[in-house]
């Protein structure tokens, strides 16, 4: 009888462990959230870098950008995975320079907790950003709250034809 209870207890323990470990090992999708926000920020940096290559020595200005550059900025890759978020960007006097001052030029206003990915718990919520150096990374909710967004424009509301957008408040 004692052996039967030991086998039952061991089976129960194994079943509980399987319920905990199998989902963690399967992984699931890491699409959307900060994965998509970082991809969108990287895409926007590449658009700005391409514009700069075609306009040596000039700082980017949305008003001076051609229609294709404007379209790419207002419809960044990966944005469909973060529909509930806004991508805010500086669209005037922007230079992407790896050796220059490091200032945020693009930020996702929604914090996500899927990056970095952990097997058994969620990451702390963070915001994706892109810097004037071309780098992208995640910043904390506190760092985001301390940003001065007065010169940022919501890329979803900017008018690609007339360069009019709503300021991020």
Give the strand order of the largest sheet, numbering strands 1, 2, ... along the chain.
Answer: 6-5-4-2-7
Low-confidence stretches: 21-30
Cα-based radius of gyration, to the nearest Å: 22 Å
| Overall number of structural domains | 1
How many DSSP-defined strands? Answer: 7
Shape: elongated
Q: Tell me the series of helices and strands, N- to C-terminal.
A: HHEHEEEEEHE
Number of helices: 4
Q: Name the average pLDDT.
A: 80
- Tell me the fraction of residues in β-strands, as a range: 15-25%
Structural class: alpha+beta
Helix content: 25-40%
Gap between N and C termini: 70 Å
Task: Give a short account of the largest sheet.
Answer: 5 strands, antiparallel
Can you give a write-up of this model?
The chain is an alpha+beta fold and 169 residues long. It has one domain (30-154). The chain contains four helices and seven strands; from the N terminus they run ααβαβββββαβ. A five-stranded antiparallel β-sheet has the order 6-5-4-2-7. Strands 1-3 form a two-stranded antiparallel sheet. The longest helix has 25 residues, at 2-26. The model is unreliable at 21-30 (pLDDT under 50).
């Amino acid at each position: 009888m004692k052996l039967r209870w030991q086998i039952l207890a061991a089976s129960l323990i194994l079943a509980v462990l399987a319920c905990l470990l199998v989902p963690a090992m399967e992984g699931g999708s890491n699409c959307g959230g900060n994965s998509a926000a970082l991809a969108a920020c990287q895409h926007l940096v590449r658009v700005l870098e391409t514009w700069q290559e075609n306009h040596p020595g000039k700082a980017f200005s949305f008003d001076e950008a051609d229609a294709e550059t404007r379209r790419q900025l207002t419809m960044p890759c990966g944005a469909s995975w973060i529909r509930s978020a806004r991508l805010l960007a500086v669209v005037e006097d922007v230079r992407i320079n790896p050796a220059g001052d490091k200032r945020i030029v693009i930020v996702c206003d929604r914090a996500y907790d899927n990056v970095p990915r952990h097997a058994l718990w969620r990451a702390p919520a963070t915001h994706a950003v892109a810097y004037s150096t071309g780098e992208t990374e995640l910043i904390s909710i506190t760092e985001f709250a301390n940003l001065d967004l007065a010169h940022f424009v919501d890329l979803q509301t900017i008018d690609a034809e007339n360069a009019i957008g709503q300021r991020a408040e």
